[in-house]
């Protein structure tokens, strides 16, 4: 009889190594997600970075030292009264504009369209232009007739650049969705996910450097695309880990987000933390619990109970696309997931800037205010057991449809309320409360569409969750594109259209899931898992047998 292998593990994880794996998955997913959304906060603190949608020199409009320094210096030096101060300011402006008339039209409360009409000059001061904007191409304007056309061309070029910067993560998620699925099957989750985190760490670290060098904006687009591409590995790995490591009662999604308010060190800190988490993942994770040296037979019994590892699963699992794409309940899950992440992407990308530019919170307070809704969202997500208990009060289909439909409808109504009553006056401090309510109520939908994925797909739920990554990319790309093109002057009236658009898409998602959503397994998934087999194993038939499986060795010793 072989000797049992000595297990070195913390006492709190004895017979519970699966929880350690799931916690590690939370950490890895959170850091990849934080790397993507970090840029949305960092742009408000980088005074030299012009790659963001709202250029920094004009972001100081609400607390600008540049606008207050001139009158303060004048009064301090000359002790002028109000009338003399006005005349002196006019003289200074006339001296600055002796040979040019400058018009600034605000596009995004700081994203300015700089159109210059020249008089009696034939060339442009390149040094002065470079100091004004690192992103200008130092275009030469020969006369006043060409200035308007050149200004329109520059405006279109700038908006295109801003579009690329903000939509790059979503584009990376879209492009990485299907390759991530193939890489996962070819190389396994252990190596593939570790490489994805290293890739994200490299791109995040470079974001602290590339915006300030030549062609920095284009390099910023590339780095954010790489972040999105690396992020595309999250949901395929979540599907794999929950299928192999979670019990039938532990299939639920995990999300976390973090904000910071420094502009350069967070990129480096996130990169370092991502590398550290990547190393821990590579050392601890194994594809299947049977191959993990710390998993004993008792825990393996809990994990595989109800999971039939038959030839049917392997044959169908080799080519699941046709079955998934022809299933209406699966499409209902994907569309509901897209609606869910439309709200998430809007909040994580633009809520800090919305608090700063629309609600007029202080720059230091905006990230903190924007993070409060996610803190409460995390608390509501942790209360999984309570919502699961409430779901047992009715049958599974009614529970799934009720959670998802109620969540989406209430969230859409709050968005409509925000569109009708924009922030200001009595609602000045209520915008955080509104978004907190939206994100907290949105967590109920997890027990709708995501639980439906497990009930419909059973063993194949991992593939349903994996391909959901594509629709997450659609959500991130769509919200960024909508904000860039519809919000031009960054006022409350323009944001009404965004809120109404999100509300309409949420209602459509709720309707689609309400019609096609299901809690019954599809024909091709009925025999993949047996939820009734929750009793301890009598035989080893439910285990994918291997001579080196620690669980089998431990079970032999116990018997």
Structure commentary:
The protein is an all-alpha fold. The chain folds into 2 domains: 16-293, no CATH class; 319-523, Growth Hormone, Chain: A. The chain is built from 21 helices and 2 strands. Helix 1 packs antiparallel against helix 9 and helix 14 runs parallel beside helix 17. It is globular, with a radius of gyration of 28 Å. The N and C termini lie close together (12 Å).
Provide the succession of SSEs.
HHHHEEHHHHHHHHHHHHHHHHH
What is the end-to-end distance?
12 Å
Category from helices, strands and their pairing: mainly alpha
Count of DSSP strands: 2
Helix content: 55-70%
**What's the number of structural domains?**
2
**Radius of gyration of CA atoms, rounded to a whole number:** 28 Å
Proportion of strand residues: under 5%
Features:
disordered N terminus; mainly alpha; globular; 559 residues; MFS; Growth Hormone, Chain: A; membrane; 3% strand; two-stranded antiparallel sheet; transmembrane transporter activity
């Amino acid at each position: 009889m072989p000797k049992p292998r000595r297990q070195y593990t913390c006492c709190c994880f004895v017979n519970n190594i699966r929880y350690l794996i799931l916690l590690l998955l939370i950490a890895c997913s959170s850091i990849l997600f934080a790397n993507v959304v970090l840029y949305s906060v960092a742009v408000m603190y980088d005074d030299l970075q012009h790659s963001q949608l709202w250029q920094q020199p004009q972001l100081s409009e609400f607390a600008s030292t540049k606008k207050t320094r001139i009158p303060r210096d004048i009064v301090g030096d000359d002790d002028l009264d109000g009338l003399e101060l006005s005349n002196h300011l006019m003289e200074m402006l006339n001296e600055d504009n002796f040979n040019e008339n400058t018009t600034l039209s605000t596009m995004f409360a700081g994203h300015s369209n700089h159109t210059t009409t020249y008089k009696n000059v034939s060339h442009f001061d390149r040094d002065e232009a470079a100091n004004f904007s690192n992103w200008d191409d130092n275009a030469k304007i020969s006369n006043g007739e060409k200035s308007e056309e050149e200004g329109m061309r520059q405006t279109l070029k700038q908006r295109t650049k801003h579009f690329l910067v903000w939509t790059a993560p979503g584009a990376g998620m879209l492009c990485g969705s299907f390759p991530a699925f193939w890489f996962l099957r070819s190389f396994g989750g252990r190596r593939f996910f570790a490489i994805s985190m290293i890739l994200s760490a490299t791109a995040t670290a470079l974001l602290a450097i590339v915006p300030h060098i030549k062609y920095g904006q284009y390099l910023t687009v590339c780095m954010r695309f790489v972040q999105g591409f690396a992020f595309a590995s999250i949901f395929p790995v979540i599907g794999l880990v929950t299928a192999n490591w979670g019990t039938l009662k532990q299939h639920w999604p995990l999300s976390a987000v973090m904000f910071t308010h420094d502009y350069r060190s967070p990129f480096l800190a996130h990169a370092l933390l991502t590398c550290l988490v990547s190393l821990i993942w590579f050392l601890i994770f194994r594809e299947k619990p049977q191959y993990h040296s710390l998993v004993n037979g008792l825990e393996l019994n809990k994990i595989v109970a109800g999971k039939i590892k038959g030839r049917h699963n392997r044959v169908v699992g080799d080519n699941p696309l046709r079955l998934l794409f022809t299933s209406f309940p699966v499409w209902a899950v994907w569309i509901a997931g897209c609606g869910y992440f439309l709200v998430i992407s809007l909040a994580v990308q633009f809520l800090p800037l919305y608090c700063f530019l629309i609600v007029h919170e202080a720059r230091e307070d905006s990230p903190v205010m924007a993070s409060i809704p996610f803190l409460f969202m995390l608390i509501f997500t942790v209360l999984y057991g309570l919502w699961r208990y409430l779901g047992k009060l009715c049958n599974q289909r009614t529970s799934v449809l009720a959670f998802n439909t109620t969540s989406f409808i209430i969230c859409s109504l709050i968005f409509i309320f925000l569109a009708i009553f924009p922030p200001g006056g009595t609602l000045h401090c209520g915008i955080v409360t509104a978004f907190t309510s939206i994100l907290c109520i949105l967590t109920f939908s997890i027990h709708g569409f995501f639980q439906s994925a497990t009930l419909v797909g059973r063993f194949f739920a991992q593939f349903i969750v994996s391909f959901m990554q594509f629709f997450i990319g659609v959500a991130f790309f769509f919200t960024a594109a909508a904000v860039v093109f519809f919000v031009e002057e960054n006022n409350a009236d323009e944001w009404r259209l965004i809120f109404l658009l999100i509300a309409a898409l949420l209602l459509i998602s709720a309707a689609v899931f309400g019609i096609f959503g299901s809690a019954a397994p599809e024909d091709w998934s009925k025999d993949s898992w047996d939820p009734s087999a929750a009793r301890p194993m009598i035989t080893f038939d439910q285990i994918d047998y291997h001579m080196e499986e620690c669980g089998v060795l431990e079970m032999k010793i116990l018997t």
